């Protein structure tokens, strides 16, 4: 069987000391990639440091792979990319995976809870990706993953800070997919659901046992392989299932009969059921399609 391999490629996986990141690092390491196993080693609320990364590096080496540990925070992402360049002389793959939680109902959410979540998830991905971007552009090759969440796409009680950051990552990926296109830089988003310390008290126990990060790692690995040419996708995966998510527009409604008529609050009310009617929804993949659709509607 033809096996996809990553030999000659250098992969940076952030937050790879445990959970999903560890599964990604082990899989890529077992398929020939040289891996930078980044992990600050904090508790799940972002406090403290430890050496999770060393253990993963050892596991990769024990299986004959090549890896190096990096303990920097993603908010100093340039240091993580430097680790890749210093040790392996290149970087080809970046999986932005590091994450923490500071769940609180919105009223009780402190500014610190807000800022820390934005810093690790959104700013961390920005800093690490921007540090790799120059190399990716120069070599006309790069594969990037952002990690979002269904809590971001759909909202989840007690996760206003996390939802905002996770949806922010979708926006970041969408624009980078456009900016990276002519340099063969592919930027995609994974929406995982897996057993990890982030979900141990959220998922029901029997589901927790089944939702192994190993079931998601091949999806992410495929999306960072050189043969993978899609970009700007949001892929939701869990339990050996994967599906694409994206935004759609309803057919919409004209809010006035002719251009010389005013739009009134009442005309909006009277057309509202058609505004939100999702029958025959239109799939939107590119910003230009929004304009094309609008022009078509206005000509009716
Ligand atoms: P995890 O807690 O096992 O892994 C996250 C890792 O990131 C930890 O090892 C932690 O030490 C590290 N980390 C935290 N702050 C860091 C920083 N500033 N710099 C570098 N490393 C840092 O959790 P899990 O579940 O594997 O999460 C991985 C990613 O997947 C996160 O972005 C999370 O938000 C996301 N996610 C996970 C879901 C799940 O069901 N497990 C659901 C949706 C999203």
TrEMBL record:
Residues of the Ketoreductase domain: 9-182
Domain of life per record: Eukaryota
Keyword Transcription: no
InterPro entries: KR_dom, NAD(P)-bd_dom_sf, Peroxisomal_Beta-Oxidation, Sc_DH/Rdtase_CS, SDR_fam
Record's GO cellular component terms: peroxisome
GO molecular function, one term: 3-hydroxyacyl-CoA dehydratase activity
Keywords: Fatty acid metabolism, Lipid metabolism, Oxidoreductase, Peroxisome
Pathway: Lipid metabolism; fatty acid beta-oxidation
Location of the protein in the cell: Peroxisome
BP terms from Gene Ontology: fatty acid metabolic process
Family affiliation: Belongs to the short-chain dehydrogenases/reductases (SDR) family.
Name by which UniProt lists this protein: Peroxisomal multifunctional enzyme type 2
Organism the protein comes from: Danaus chrysippus (African queen)
């Amino acid at each position: 069987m033809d096996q996809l391999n990553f030999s000659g490629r250098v992969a940076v996986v952030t937050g790879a000391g445990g959970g999903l990141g560890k599964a990604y690092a082990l899989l890529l390491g077992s398929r020939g990639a040289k891996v930078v196993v980044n992990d600050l080693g904090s508790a799940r609320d972002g406090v403290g440091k430890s050496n999770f990364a060393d253990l993963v590096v050892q596991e990769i080496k024990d299986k004959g792979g090549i890896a190096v540990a990096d303990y920097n925070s993603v908010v100093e992402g340039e240091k993580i990319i430097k680790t890749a360049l210093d040790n392996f002389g290149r970087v080809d793959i970046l999986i932005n995976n590091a994450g923490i939680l500071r769940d609180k109902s919105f009223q009780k959410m402190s500014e610190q809870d807000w800022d820390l979540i934005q810093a690790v998830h959104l700013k961390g991905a920005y800093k690490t990706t921007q540090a790799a971007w120059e190399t990716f552009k120069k070599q006309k090759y790069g594969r990037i993953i952002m990690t979002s969440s269904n809590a971001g796409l759909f909202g989840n009680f007690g996760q206003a800070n996390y939802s905002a950051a996770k949806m922010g990552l979708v926006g970041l990926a969408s624009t980078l997919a456009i900016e990276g296109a002519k340099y063969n830089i592919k930027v995609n988003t994974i929406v995982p659901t897996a057993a990890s310390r982030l979900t141990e008290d959220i998922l029901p126990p029997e589901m927790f046992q089944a939702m192994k990060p190993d079931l998601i790692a091949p999806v992410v690995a495929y999306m960072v392989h050189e043969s993978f040419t899609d970009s700007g996708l949001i892929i939701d995966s869990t339990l050996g299932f994967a599906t694409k998510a994206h935004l759609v527009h309803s057919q919409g409604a004209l809010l006035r009969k002719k251009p010389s008529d005013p739009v009134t609050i009442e005309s909006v009310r009277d057309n509202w059921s058609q505004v939100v009617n999702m029958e025959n929804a239109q799939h939107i993949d590119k910003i230009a399609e929004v304009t094309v659709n609008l022009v078509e509607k206005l000509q009716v």
